[in-house]
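My current task is to audit a protein record that another person submitted. I have pasted the whole thing underneath without changing anything:
***
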Amino acid sequence: MEMKLTSVWIAARRTGGGRLARQTAQWGCLFAVVLGLSQLAASVGGGADAPPKGGAWALAVAMPEPRQEAGAVALGNMIYLISGYGADTVPSTLVQVYDTAGKQWKQAAPIRLALHHLGVAALDGKIYVVGGFTGSFAKRGPVNSVWQYDPATDRWERRAPLPTPRGAHAVAVLDGRIYALGGERLGAAAGSQTYEPVADVAAYDPKADAWEVLPPMRHRRDHLVAGAIGGRIYAVAGRDRPNYTLQHVEEYNPATRAWMERAPIPTGRSGAAAGVVNNRLYVFGGEGNADSSLGTFNQVEAYDPARDSWTQLAPMPLPRHAFGGAVVGNRIYLPGGSIVQGGRAPGTTPITDTFEPN
């Protein structure tokens, strides 16, 4: 027996205090129903084919302003959701901050440039926004800007730019440097594509405020995810249109400045979210699912570099893409995103769910 949630359409509007509480309760009910159906499907399906649970799903407070293609990053107990857009696909400068201890949202100083598909990282008490796109998605323009946010002063300042403009890239932090991997740029004027993926890699040193261009990945791609484990950088999945479901996994060794292929991710996808907990890289959702009418994935898979192997875990109760993962302790927070491939209205959701590996 198989159960599937084939169509869930979610629209949300900005609400005040009382309405926000009611909205959060409503999201809690929806989440509970979806989670219950998901678990029931797994238990009824049962047998050797049933994936291991491998973690616990829960619901945090829904964000006041639904966003997709925003940058998500954790600093201390706070999660920063930066820029991105709603159903209109036009980015804003909004910065929403979730206090995981106090369980409430607030706003920080707006970023000085409205972006989407941006890269974000936290390092030494600061937050960095790397690259991204300006304008609507249909008329997106890649940028090379880098912004630093200081929570102590609630101020943004510009830093040394990326060597090449790009958006829809992945960012990871290792040994005091911020790595920007892959992404999408404007295509050559004579080319057949308006945009094209890149294999570019560069590392930023905040203390020197300088970038170093590194050897490119073996596979060009955008909408990928990345993480740092054990002194290595891992670049996972992504797209090279018309292929939205690349399975490539590449490992970068800073000591040798070399890339090598690793075990491919079982479920190729793009626009996924990721987070590193206990030396494993967890990958959530994404788009490109030909078996879903909405085009999104609910698959959750974890990579263990020590064994060079993948494990399938408890699926997402609400499949989606265009979101990011932020890790606080052993819990991965997954705010916002879109339940519909391509971010079509009304797919943008304010839901913030969490996953904690067993």
Notes: The CA atoms of residues 132 and 167 lie 4 Å apart. The helical segments are 17-45. The chain has one helix and 26 strands.
